[in-house]
Amino acid sequence: MIGAIKQAWANFRGFDLTGSTVPPMDGPLRPNAKLDAAPVLLDLADVDNLALWGQEVLCSVGCEIHTLAQTAGEDGQGLSISRSRGMGKPVTSMAAGADLLAVAVEGEGIRIESRDGASSELIVPEALDARCVTAMAFADRSTLLVAVGSDRNPARDWKRDLMTRTAAGSVWRIEIGSRTAVPIASGLAFPSGIIMSKDRVFVSEAWRHRVLSMGIDGSRQQIALGSLPVYPGRIAPASEGGFWLAMFAPRNPLVEFVLKEDEYRRRMIETIDPDYWIAPSLVTGRSFLEPIQGGARKKLNMLKPWSPTWSTGLVVRCDKDMAMMRNYQSRADGDVHGVTSLCEADGRLLVAAKGSGKIVAIHELAGHIA
Amino acid sequence: MASSDTFAYLRSRYLPDHLIGEILSKRWIDNAIPFSALVLTILVLGSVIPDFLSLSSLTDLARQFAEFGLVVLAMTVVMISGGIDLSVASVFSLAVLFSLIGVNVYDLPIPAVLAGILAMGMCCGAINGVLVGYLRLRAFLTTLVSLIIFRSIYEIVFVMMSTSMMSGFSMSDLWLFIGEGTVLGVPTSLAITLVIALAWHLVLSRMRPGWRLTAVGGARRSAFNAGIDVRFMVFLTYVASSTMCALAGFLFAARLGSTGSDTGVGLEVQALTAAVLGGTAIGGGRGSVAKAIIGSLLVLMLTNGLINLGISGPVTSTILGAILLAAVFVDMRWQKHRHRILAKVYVSPAYLSLPPAPKVDAPGSPYVLNDRLRSVEIIGLGQIEGPEDVILDRDDNLYCGTRHGDIVRFFGPDHERSEVFAHIGGHPLGMAFDRNGNLLVCIGGMGLFQVAPDRAVTKLTDETNRSWTSVVDDSRLRLADDVDVAPDGRIYFSEATIRYEQEDWATDALESRPSGRMICYDPRTGKTHTEIPKLVFANGVTMCPDGQSFMFAESWTCSISRYWFDGPKKGKTERVISSLPGYPDNINRSSDGNYWLALLGMRGPALDLAMRMPGFRKRMARRVAPDQWLYPNINTGCVVKFNEKGEILDNLWDLGGRNHPMITSMREHKGWLYLGGVSNNRIGRYKLPDADPDWCAQDAYWGPRP
User: Fold this and answer.
1) Cα separation of B671 and B373, whole Å?
2) Do A294 and B506 touch (CB under 8 A)?
C-alpha cells in the first residue's frame, strides 16, 4: 500500500524508484584503453597476489608462489618465472613487510617467513577463519592487518558471497610476536583490500562498493571513497605518495536488479554453475553458456567498448586521502580484465590481471604515460 | 518449485496481459481518457438529475449538439492544421442573423437562404484564410480581430433589423422541418451534422487531403518540403471552418426562430474548451472527429446539467474552467509519458519451459565443439552489412540481402566483383528461387517480393487474412522471415512475430510468446492466407523431398517441426527435434538429402531459468534499460546438419566468434557451404570435405535449366 503510493508519487513527479542504477564512470573514472595499450610482461593464467619483497617480485598462482625476474627480451622489459615453490594448499593473499613475508594459505593459516628463509612460522588464530583471507598489510614490523572476506565462503567463491548478499567479513590485527588476533571491524561486506597509512587503515569494502577508513583499533570508521561504479579490491602504496587501487569487477545494472530479485537469485544459485550466473566476473567470453546483455551483442563482428560487461580492467591512482585522481582501464572489448593485485617495482607499476591471466606494466613519469 | 512454475504457467496462459500493451498502442487510445470522462459525466448527471436521460431532454440535447458540434468540428479542423479560429462565434451569430433576415423579413425561399448563408460563411472564411494563410499573419490575433469586426457588423445590423425580424415569421414547411422535424427518428439537424462529421472523419483518416491537413499542422516545414501547398491548405481550412459555422447558425435560426443581442457570445471559448477537452492539440497535428464529438458532448452535458441543478451562469463558467484546466493537465502528462508507459507496458513475457539443453561436448553427444568455421574464406568483407540469407543460382552467382534494402549479387565463381542486383527497401531476409528462376525474397518490414532475372521487382503480397481474436492488426506482415516454394508453385513463408518490427526482433525473445505464423501465398490465385498460426518466432522453412511437407523452425522453443500441407497427412504437425542447444534460424536442403540448420545463438542456463519466471522478465523489462536486458547469446552461432528423423549428423562452429560470431543462414552449393549472418559484415565460404562438388540446389529441386 505504501509502496503503491510511493510509486504513484514517483510516477507523477517523474523520478525513478528502481534503485538498479549504477553511478556513471566519469571524472577521474573517465573511460580509456590505457591498460590495453600497456606492454604485457608475462602471460600467466590465474596470476594473483603480486608483492615486492626486498628486491624480488613475487606472485602466486593457485598453490604455488613464483618469483619473477626480468628477462632481456626484444624490448628488454619482459618477466619470467625464476623460482617456484608450492604451499600445498591455495594461497589466497600475500603481504610483504620490510623483512617478513606473510602468506595466507587456505585451510591452514597465515605463514610468516623471514628473508633469509630461516624461520617460517604458521599462525593459526583461533577465531580467525583462514579460509577467506583476501588481503593483508603490515602496519609495522610486528603487526599484521588481515582482511577476512567472509565467514561463510572461501575466497574463490566470492561470486557466491556477492549473490547471496552476505556481509560476514571482518578485519583483524595480529601481533606477530604474541600470535594474538584482535578483531577491529566486523559485519563488513567482503573487505577485499587493506593498507595502513600513517594512523589510518583503509579497507575496501567490495559489496558496498566503497573504501572505508578507520583507526588501527577500528574506531572512527568513515567512508573514504563511496558510490563507486565498480567493486574495489586490493590497495598498493605508490612511491610518490598516495595509493593504487585495483578494481576487480564492474557493477552492472542487471546484477543490481538480480540482487533484488530473491526468488530468481535463489534458483540461479541452486541450479546453475557459478561461471554462468548473472554476476560480475573476472573475465568474460570464455564460454557461450554465459549470459549476455542486449548491448553486448556483436554487431558487424564488433563488440562496442561501452557495451555492458560482466568484467573490466581498472586501476585507479588515488591520493593520500583515497580521492581518485586518474585511471587506467580496459573496456568491454579489451583483454586485460580482472585486475586483482598491483605492486610498484623499478619505477613502474606491475598490474596482475587474474581474469585475463597476464601482467602488464604501467610507466608513469610525473603523471604522463611513457 | 514445481508449484510456482505451474502457477506461472497458468497465469501466463490464461491472463492475457499482453493485451494491455496492444490496446495502448492503438491509434484510438488517445480518446480513452475523454471518453471515460464522458461516460462518468453521463452516469453522475443521470443519477443526480431526474429526467436527465429522458427522451425529451435527450432530443433537446441532440439539437443543441447538432449546432454546437458543428462549431466544435470547425474549430477542431482549424486546430488540426495548426491554427486557431476565434471568429467562429461571430460567424455563427452573423449566420443566425442573416438567416432570420432572409426568412422572416424578406421571405426568401429556404434553399436560397441556405446558399446565401453558406456563401457568406465562405467569404468570412476566405478573409481569415487570406490573412492567415497567404499573408502569414498570426492566427490568434487575426481571428480575434475578425471576431470583433464580424461581431460589430452583427450589432449594427441587429439594431437595424430587430423589430422587423421579430414581427415577421415563416410559413415554410422546410423551415419547420429543419428546425423541429426528424429523419428516421433522428432530429434533422443532428442527421445533417452526423453526415458532415462522417464525411470529415473519412477525409481526415482515410483520404489524402486529410493527411495533408494533419501534416501541415504537425510539421509545417516538413509538409512544405514534401510538396504540400501549405498556404492553400490553411486557406481552405478557414473557409471550411467558417462555412460549417454558418451552417450551424442556420440550424440554430431554424430551431429557435429568433435571436438576441447575446447570441453566440462566449461561443468561441466554449468551442475551444470542447476541442481541448476532447484531446485536440492546440499546436496542431493531433485531432479527430471523434475527439470533437466527445468534447462537445462533454461540455454540453456539463453546462446543461449544471444549469439544471440551478447553478448560476458565472459559477458554471468557473466550474467549466476548472475542468478545462484539469483536462489540459492530464492530457499533457499523458502525451509526455505515453511512449514511456507504452514501452514499459508492451513487453509481456510468457512462461516457457524448455527441455534441458543437450550437453555439448559430453561423451556420446552428437554436438562436438570444433573450430572448423574459423578458417572460412571471406566474401565481401565490409562491402555488405547484414546478409541474413545467401543463395546461389545456376551460374554460381551469389545473392544476399543487406540492411540498406539492397540485394547484392557477387559474380561467380570467385565472388570478387559485386553489384547491386535490385534495391527494394526494408531488410531482405530469406530467399528462394521458383521454377522460372525468379528470386523470391522476404523483406523484413515490407512483405514478400519477387525479383525477376531481368531485375524487375514486383510485390507478391504484404498482407494476409485478419484473425478475429487479435488486437494487433495481424493482416499486416511485419517480419516476413524465410521462404520456400512447393512443387506446385505455392509459396510458404514464415512471419516471425506480429508484435514487433524488424529492428526489435530480439525483444520477442524476451517474450517468447506464440506470436509467429506460417503463411501461404498462392501465385495461381494471388491469395494469401495464414497456414499455421501461433508459432513461437517461426523462422526457417524448407521443403521436404516428398513435396507434401516442409520443415520449419521455431526459434525460442529451440525446436524443428514438420508440417504436411498436402497428401494423406495434410494439416498435421510433428516435432522432429525438440531440444537444440541453441536457437534455430534458417533451414536449407543439403546435397545428401538431409538438412542444414543455422543456430543463431546458444542457449544459456541463466536465460533458460528466466524463461520459466515471466514475472522476473517483466520486472526486468520495466526497471532496467533495454541495453541491459538479458538476451539470447547471439555472439556464438553454429551450423548443424540433421536428417528427417531428427538425428544430428554434423556440426560446425566458430568458437570465440572471430570470423562468424552469428550465423543465421547457410546454403550448400557445389561442395561449398556459404554462411550469412544478420549482424555480420561478411559472407563466409566453407569447403565441405565430402559433399558433391557438382550439386546445385536449383537443379536438384526444379530440375535442370529449361
Assistant:
1) 15
2) yes
The Cα–Cα gap between B272 and B324 comes to: 10
CB atoms A293 and B627 under 8 Å: yes
Taking the CA atoms of B26, B27, B31 and B33 in sequence, report the sign of the dihedral they define: positive
Position A33 confidence tier, pLDDT thresholds 50, 70, 90 = very high
Distance in angstroms (rounded) separating the CA atoms of residues A157 and B146: 81
Which residues in chain A are closer than 8 Å to B623, comparing Cβ atoms? 18, 20, 257
**Cell 606492454, located at residue:** A39
Q: Which of B623, B662, B679 sits opposite A20 (nearest CB)?
A: B623
pTM for the full predicted model? 0.84
> In this complex, do B630 and A254 lie within 8 Å of one another by their Cβ atoms?
yes
Can you read off the three cell numbers belonging to residue B155?
A: 450589432
Report the C-alpha gap between B86 and B143 in whole angstroms. 5
B660 contacts B677 by C-beta, under 8 angstroms:
yes
Residue of B nearest to A22 (CA): B624
Which residue among B337, B623, B662 sits closest to A257, beta carbon to beta carbon? B623
Q: What is the pLDDT of residue A14?
A: 64
The pLDDT, as a whole number, for residue B227 is 94
Residues in chain A with CB shorter than 8 Å from the CB of B680 are 300-301
Residue found under cell 603523471: A367
Query: What are the distances in angstroms from CA A203 to CA A171, A181, B558?
Result: 8, 17, 48
Q: What is the pLDDT of residues B343-402, one digit of tens each?
A: 878 889 999 999 999 988 788 888 888 888 888 899 999 899 999 999 999 999 999 999
Distance from CA of B591 to the nearest CA of A (A): 30
The answer, yes or no, to whether residue A369 has pLDDT greater than 60, is no
What are the tens digits of pLDDT across the range B353-367? 999 999 887 888 888
At B17, the amino acid letter reads: D
CB proximity A2 to B under 8 Å: no
**Helix B614-623 and helix B2-14, axial crossing angle in degrees, nearest 10:** 70
User: What is the torsion angle, in degrees rounded to the nearest 10, for the CA atoms of residue B228, residue B230, residue B231 and residue B237?
Assistant: 110
Residues of A whose CB is below 8 A from B1:
267
Which residues does residue A327 pair with via DSSP β-bridges, in sequence order?
A: A316
Q: Render pLDDT for B257-276 as a digit per residue (tens, 0 to 9).
A: 888 888 888 899 899 989 98
> Parallel, antiparallel, or unpaired for β A339-345 and B665-669?
unpaired
Question: Which candidate from A263, A289, A296 shows the least CB-CB separation from B604?
Answer: A289
Spell out where A263-355 has E strands: 292-293, 313-318, 324-330, 339-345, 348-353
Are B640 and B677 a contacting pair, CB within 8 Å?
no
Q: Which of residues 287-326 of A touch B (CB under 8 A)?
A: 288-301, 303, 308
Coil vs helix vs strand at B584 = strand
Q: Do B682 and A301 touch (CB under 8 A)?
A: yes
Compute the half-sphere exposure of residue A299: CA atoms within 13 Å on the CB side of its CA.
9
Distance CA B399, CA B388 (A): 11
Q: State whether the Cα torsion B310-B313-B318-B320 is positive or negative.
A: positive
* Cβ pair A294:B628 closer than 8 A: yes
Residue A277 near residue A311, CB atoms below 8 Å: no
DSSP string, A190-256: -EEEEEEETTEEEEEETTTTEEEEE-TTS-S-EEEE---SEEEEEEEE-TTSSEEEEEEEE--HHHH
Q: Which are the contacts of A8, defined by CB distance < 8 A and separation ≥ 6?
A: none
Q: Is B604 on the interface with A (CB under 8 A)?
A: yes
Tell me whether A267 touches chain B (CB under 8 Å).
Answer: yes
pLDDT confidence of residue A370: 42
Backbone angles phi, psi at A86, to 5 degrees: -95, 145
- The separation between CA B525 and the C-alpha centre of its own chain, rounded to angstroms, equals 28
Write out chain A residues lying below 8 Å of B627, CB-based: 293-295, 308
Chain B residue numbers touching A11 (CB-CB < 8 A) = 337
Residue A99, phi-psi category: left (phi > 0), alpha (psi -120 to 50), beta (remainder)? alpha
